């Protein structure tokens, strides 16, 4: 599938984006380990989360699905998973593979985790190595999937994490539930904290002091009855489009507003964007609310580095599009992690945005973009990366002439209904086979 994109007059309207991807993975995985029945509404029916659902069923968990975004999960308790009869297929989802590694480290049976070609290029030793220290048998394939794992009796460890990664942190916190004694992690910078909040809401014992988090062994988790708010990483695309298209004004309702996820919004506000965040309370320990965005008269370049990076880690493709329209040189540093996502997001962004006339320089750990630069329509490629495909579609909305985004089906990995929602706001985006 490819997208044909033309500049629209303006974007206008109110939308809700699909459920948060990080929360959808976690709510399902943790509900499977709870004692009793959990109900998940607003669950994200995207390819990445479908991979988690497939794996959880393969591990013996019964899940009813009265609607695409509604799951009833019959939890089997913390020790109740059964060995899968075939390798667990995590598709292209890093979150699925890494969080499952942490959970399966608590089980004495052998498991094999596999993924597609893209996921099989991504690093897995970052989870395997600390799990071995906890006492699990873990073998990777030269650092990658397939991963062969046999868990069992684990010991709590103290571990200084070399990278700020919520997936590594989550895997080790989950393994820590099965350990003898507490497990303490020290993060180099705060990453998204959904695992901590949700496990806490389900009755687990965790303590946090600054960048140090301790989890205690657990006997049971309580089931969940939750409505998952919209994904701020998906809202980022219509939001940036509205900023860049003159005369636009949009509202995104029922959105997750966890501060560890709002780095992009803070960056855009610092650049001069008229964005308003309207908190509306908490659900399951997570702040939720609305977002208002309108077109910006002028954006100023900024520098993003250090602890700011993990708080907007998935938003750099769309941030780069905004940066092409900002005055001055926008610089991103300390973001080498972008090279090990669905694509090498630094190299891919530079290659594709250049085709549209952007002035972007690639660095080992980030990039620099000079702006403002008028973009021109071009044929661009997603590199099989959903966030790149959507960022390029937004770039097409502000480019002169027509833009074709090739290989755009990957958008379904995180944001089913992206095109429909953008069209509802007035965007000229067509899907072609
Ligand atoms: O824990 C999560 O749900 C995620 C953590 C991040 O990955 P890392 O932990 O590898 O930074 C992020 O990029 C990914 O989209 C989702
Ligand atoms: C990196 C991402 O996801 P994952 O690591 O779960 O594949 C993403 O959604 O941008």
Q: Quote the CATH topology of the largest domain.
A: UDP-n-acetylglucosamine1-carboxyvinyl-transferase, Chain
CATH superfamily of the largest domain: Enolpyruvate transferase domain
As a whole number of angstroms, the C-alpha radius of gyration is 21 Å
What is the total tally of β strands? 27
Distance between the termini: 4 Å
Explain the overall architecture.
It is a single chain. The chain has about 425 residues and is of the alpha/beta class. The chain has two domains: about 1-20 and about 230-430, Enolpyruvate transferase domain (UDP-n-acetylglucosamine1-carboxyvinyl-transferase, Chain, Alpha-beta prism), CATH 3.65.10; about 20-215, Enolpyruvate transferase domain (UDP-n-acetylglucosamine1-carboxyvinyl-transferase, Chain). About 30% of the residues lie in helices and about 30% in strands. It contains twelve helices and 27 strands. It has helices at about 20-35, 45-60, 95-105, 125-135, 165-175, 195-200, 230-245, 265-270, 315-325, 345-355, 385-395, 420-425; strands at about 1-5, 10-15, 35-40, 60-65, 70-75, 90, 110-115, 135-140, 145-150, 155, 160, 180, 185, 205-210, 210-215, 225, 250-255, 275-285, 285-295, 300, 305, 325-330, 360-365, 365-370, 380, 405, 430. Strands 20, 21, 22, 23 and 24 form a five-stranded mixed beta sheet that branches. Strands 25-26-1-27 form a four-stranded mixed beta sheet. Strands 2-17-19-18 form a four-stranded mixed beta sheet. A hairpin with a 2-residue loop joins strand 14 and strand 15. Helix 7 packs parallel to helix 9 (about 315-325) and helix 9 runs parallel beside helix 10. The longest helix is centred in the first third of the chain and has 13 residues, at about 20-35. The radius of gyration is 21 Å and the shape is globular. The N and C termini lie close together (about 5 Å). The mean pLDDT is about 100. It binds shikimate-3-phosphate and phosphoenolpyruvate. The site of phosphoenolpyruvate has 9 residues, from helix 3. It holds the Pfam family EPSP_synthase. GO terms for molecular function: 3-phosphoshikimate 1-carboxyvinyltransferase activity. It catalyses: 3-phosphoshikimate + phosphoenolpyruvate = 5-O-(1-carboxyvinyl)-3-phosphoshikimate + phosphate. It comes from Thermoflexus hugenholtzii JAD2. Its EC number is 2.5.1.19.
């Amino acid at each position: 599938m490819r997208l044909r994109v033309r500049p629209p007059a303006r974007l206008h309207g109110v939308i809700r984006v699909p459920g948060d991807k990080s929360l959808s993975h976690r709510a399902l995985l943790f509900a499977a380990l709870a004692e009793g029945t959990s109900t998940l509404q607003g669950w994200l029916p995207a390819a990445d989360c479908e991979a988690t659902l497939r794996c959880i069923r393969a591990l013996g968990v019964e899940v009813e699905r009265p609607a695409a975004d509604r799951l009833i999960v019959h939890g089997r308790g913390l020790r109740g998973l059964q060995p899968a009869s075939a390798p667990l297929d995590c598709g292209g989802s890093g979150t699925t593979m890494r969080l499952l590694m942490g959970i399966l480290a608590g089980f004495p049976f052998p498991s094999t985790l596999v993924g597609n070609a893209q996921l099989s290029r991504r690093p897995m030793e970052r989870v395997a190595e600390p799990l071995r220290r906890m006492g699990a048998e873990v073998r990777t394939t030269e650092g990658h999937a397939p991963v062969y794992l046999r868990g069992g009796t684990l010991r709590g460890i103290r571990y200084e994490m070399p990278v700020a990664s919520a997936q590594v942190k989550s895997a080790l916190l989950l393994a820590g539930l099965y350990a003898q004694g507490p497990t303490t992690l020290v993060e180099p910078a705060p990453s998204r904290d959904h695992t901590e909040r949700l496990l806490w809401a389900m009755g687990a014992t965790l303590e946090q002091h600054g960048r140090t988090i301790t989890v205690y062994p657990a006997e049971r988790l309580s089931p969940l009855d939750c409505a998952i708010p919209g994904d701020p990483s998906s809202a980022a695309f219509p939001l940036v489009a509205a900023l860049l298209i003159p005369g636009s004004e949009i509202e995104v309702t029922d959105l997750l507003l966890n501060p560890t996820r709002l780095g992009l919004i803070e960056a855009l506000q610092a650049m001069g964007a008229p964005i308003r965040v309207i908190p509306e309370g908490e659900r399951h320990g997570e702040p939720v609310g609305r977002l208002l965005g309108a077109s910006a008269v002028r954006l100023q370049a900024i520098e993003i580095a250090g602890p700011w990076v993990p708080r907007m880690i998935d938003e750099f493709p769309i941030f780069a599009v905004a940066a092409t329209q900002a005055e001055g040189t926008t610089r991103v540093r300390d973001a080498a992690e972008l090279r090990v996502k669905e694509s090498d997001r630094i190299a891919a962004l530079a290659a594709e945005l250049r085709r549209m006339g952007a002035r972007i320089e690639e660095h080992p750990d980030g990039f620099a973009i000079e702006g403002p630069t008028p973009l021109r329509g071009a044929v661009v490629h997603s590199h099989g990366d959903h966030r790149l495909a959507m960022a390029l579609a937004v770039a097409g909305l502000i480019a002169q002439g027509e833009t074709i985004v090739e290989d755009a089906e990957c958008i379904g990995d995180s944001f089913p209904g992206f095109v429909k929602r953008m069209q509802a706001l007035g965007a000229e985006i067509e899907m072609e086979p």
